[in-house]
Amino acid sequence: MVNLKISTRQLKLKHQWKISRGSSSEKEYNFIELESDGTVGFGEAAHNIRYDESLESIGQFIESAVPLLKSANPMEFYNLGIEIANLSPGQQAAKAAIDIALIDWNAKKLGIPYYRMLGLNANETPITSYSIGIDTVEIMQQKIEEAKDFPILKIKLGSENDEEIMRAVRQITNKTVRVDANEGWTDKREALEKIEWLATIGVEFIEQPMPANHLDDVAWLREKSPLPLVADEDVKTAKDIPVLARAYDGINIKIMKSGGLQEAWRMIQLARSLNLKIMLGCMVESALGITAAAHLSPLVDWADLDGNLLISNDPFRGVVVQKGKIILPNATGIGIQPIE
Ligand code: MG
After folding, report:
1. Helix (H), strand (E) at residue 92
2. What's the 200 CA to ligand 1 centre distance in angstroms?
């Protein structure tokens, strides 16, 4: 017998968060507690309006999964995950919350951390980048100052003043910098000019330069681009990956897009078979979602798991970052603790 408790929580952001398509100063998400046989698994749904998700639509999806979960054996999380993914299309963050809770519950039952279920070495976690949202040049410089402990920065571009922003970044730091245009460049020739210039000031790669579904443009761009191109908004689940291999050098996997950890695992295997680089990213999420994803991080080339660091009232404690290095918690399950 499985019992599911659904609640919502407000997460306050340290700074207003701005990317090329909008801004926010707080987030309200659905959280779940999946209880069975005295063990509780936790899940979070960090929904994204970009993917037609809202607090309400996520709540509705989770409610729709309750009858299936109540009658299921939670130990059979593989088939259960596929049944939940097939309940109705979209609402990936809701599917992720249920999947995270199922995995947390199972690893706790086995008495091991999730990374052990996957056969991974916790010492092989990568360095995560720290994202700097779009802001005035002065505030972006101040945020970079605050991020002094992080050796890698991810700069959000795709606004009017990309060049001004990058000049200001390079004025105060020579750290490794990655750029995320968040679909902000709409003309391929203009995008190429920007990328060629960014290559001259030491940028490592470019994420989602053009709007999603412009694969012909991205393939054209990739042929000429001096920097690797990484898909984000163009990829959600494994089925999106094969067609991307002709246009991109890598993909950004996020458990809130994939619908959870199990699908993220499948995506990693498929991407590797196509010689794609892999980045593990996130939404603005509490330590619950970030810690869950961090267990997969020994498998990837690049990590961008900083979503919880943007929150001032995180309701959970889990993964720790030391000079950018991801430190997995030494606990069973996902390894998160609610903060009372
Ligand atoms: Mg991105």
Report:
1. helix 92-110
2. 22
State the Cα angle at 162 between 160 and 164, rounded to 5°: 105
**Residue 214 alpha carbon to ligand 1 centre in Å:** 16
What was the pLDDT predicted at 15?
Answer: 84
**Ligand 1 center from residue 338 Cα (angstroms):** 28
> pLDDT digits over 194-230, tens only?
999 999 999 999 999 999 999 999 999 999 999 999 9
**Beta 337-338 vs 316-317: how paired, if at all?**
antiparallel
232 Cα: distance to centroid of ligand 1 (angstroms) = 5
85 Cα: distance to centroid of ligand 1 (angstroms): 23
**Gap from CA of 208 to ligand 1 centroid (Å):** 7
Q: Read off the pTM.
A: 0.96
List 13's β-bridge partners, or say none: 311
Residues 6+ apart with CB under 8 A from 256: 45, 46, 47, 48, 92, 93, 96, 282, 283, 285, 289
Query: What domains does the chain contain, in order, with CATH numbers?
Result: 3-111 (3.30.390.10), 117-338 (3.20.20.120)
What is the pLDDT at residue 24? Answer: 84
